[in-house]
Amino acid sequence: MKRRVAGIMSSILMLTSLSFAAGGDTSDEPEGVLKKRISLNQNDYIALTELGWLYQERGDRKNALRLLKTAVRIAPDYSIAHLYLGRIYYLERDYDSAISELGLFKEKMRLLPKMDDKTKKMYMNALYYLSEVYFTLEMYEKAKAEADEILEIDPKEQDAYYLMGVYYYKYEHSRSKAYQSFNKVIELGPDGHLAKYARYAIEFMRNNPDSRFAPDFSFIDQEYRD
Q1: Residue 1 maps to which CATH number?
Q2: Tens digits of residue pLDDT in 56-105
Q3: Which terminus of the chain is more exposed, N or C, with fewer CB under 10 A?
Q4: What is the Cα 13 distance to its own chain's centre?
Q5: What is the rounded distance in angstroms from the CA atom of residue 163 to the CA atom of residue 128?
Q6: Over the stretch 160-170, which tens digit does the pLDDT of each residue have?
Q7: In a domain, 186, yes or no
Q8: Domain total for the chain?
Q9: pTM of the shown model
């Protein structure tokens, strides 16, 4: 779970980052370029956001929070700053603040008149992250809602069907819906790793009729891990 979340956040960062080149500076050091941008314009909320996340990745959470809070104060409609801020609050176990900021991220994203393919990909990655956060916090209906929205954007998202299968089996105790979701995973990509996980899930359900038998669904892919 932690590895997947880290991968999702890295993908979001790559998809949202702008070029670090600014003012003719060809330096390869992102921190220096971002600081220069902020020195030239203290209201550069994009630079503040990127520098904040850079500090978070380096383990400097105090400065990361300071910069991201400044970014959302300057530009309250800038969705990415809310996403990163929510991520840090979640890591700090300030779950109420995390949920609030992640909700603001979605609210601000809905203000966009249209999403291009790159933005849609970023948004779906963020929704996956939100879904896993809600699963971890045992807010299962919210987790399912994120997966539902992903499938509205792209009905061929295997990961979303996998999440739905987990939800239906473990939390709704609906074997028929879980089978349907896992079979959809296999249908969309029979040779991929997710199809292997889905087949294992189906096999497990057949051998364990009572969905309450498994307290943790993470066993599903255990057999297929490298």
Answers
A1: 1.25.40.10
A2: 999 999 999 999 999 999 999 999 999 999 999 999 999 999 999 999 99
A3: C
A4: 11
A5: 9
A6: 999 999 999 88
A7: no
A8: 1
A9: 0.79
